[in-house]
């Protein structure tokens, strides 16, 4: 991944749940030559959002590398621990070197223990026929030697496992899985045990259902707009007059958070974007009548419309983009300050296909992540 792409992910991260922005999971992040450079881009305010998963077995890493990783704005680092027995480890992880893995693991744990505010250290073990009998001892070592914050035992994600001999030789029977859960439940440590989207918290002779950090989530922003957006748009004039009156005569903002008043400028000066050919654009001016704060601007096109919508933060005098257009913009707007933006529309299919009569773009201004302003723009064929 290039830095430009990663910066777009950072822009959208405030809209995600905590501990849900995965720097790498399916691929090994330690192979990326600019990994530390990318991690330095994550601001401290988004620390709770990001984490990464590594198997630590691709190459030997230095103390200085782990020291920099310890200062990264990550909530936690997952380490995949298949086994602490050389033969089992190298059987399960093809082409991996156990000695490299163990040296890296010991170094990472030691460095993280020495540097304050390091990311949490967590272990994940995928249970299989070859390692399931070792897992209770792995849990003990993880807690007593490596002082992990969380240990998770996973049943393999069945849709991602190959059919045939591998599956029959490696997947645990239901009875074997239940026996493993029972053993883990009796250990004097809390351990997460997951199968599919079901997550259990086991330990101290107890077993309880825990909220999973994967699978379907209640989206903060989805294709269905917030229920109060149409009302906010309809009462926009009243709200604007009320904000101005309070701000002018009482001397304080009406809202305890940013309260964004949005003005829209289109080339036709009628508030409608007339799409000619494959591209169009319009401009926004956002004035904060509430408290100073950080807002996220997010354009959303109505469902079923074949348009790609991007936005950039602009210089108010020239209209030039300060950054490359992307799916959203994060910026701070001071009380009574005004920032400007450009929204770009591009057809994803041939230009001769007509746009629906009901095509609209809603531009939302969000603050952690409540709606604090919005504008609606109609799109018509020219």
Describe this structure in words.
This protein has 382 residues and is of the alpha/beta class. It has helices at 3-12, 35-40, 63-70, 86-92, 98-114, 135-144, 165-170, 174-185, 229-234, 236-249, and strands at residues 21-22, 50-54, 76-80, 120-126, 150-154, 191-195, 198-203, 206-209, 260-265, 272-275, 279-288, 293-301, 307-314, 329-333, 338-347, 360-367, 370-381. It folds into two domains: 3-209, TIM Barrel (Alpha-Beta Barrel), CATH 3.20.20.70; 229-381, Immunoglobulin-like, CATH 2.60.40.10. Helices cover 25% and strands 29% of the residues. The strands form three sheets. The chain has an eight-stranded mixed beta sheet with strand order 1-2-3-4-5-6-7-8, with helices on one face. A five-stranded mixed beta sheet has the order 10-17-16-12-14. It has a four-stranded antiparallel beta sheet with strand order 9-11-15-13, with no helix packed on it. Strand 7 and strand 8 (206-209) form a beta hairpin.
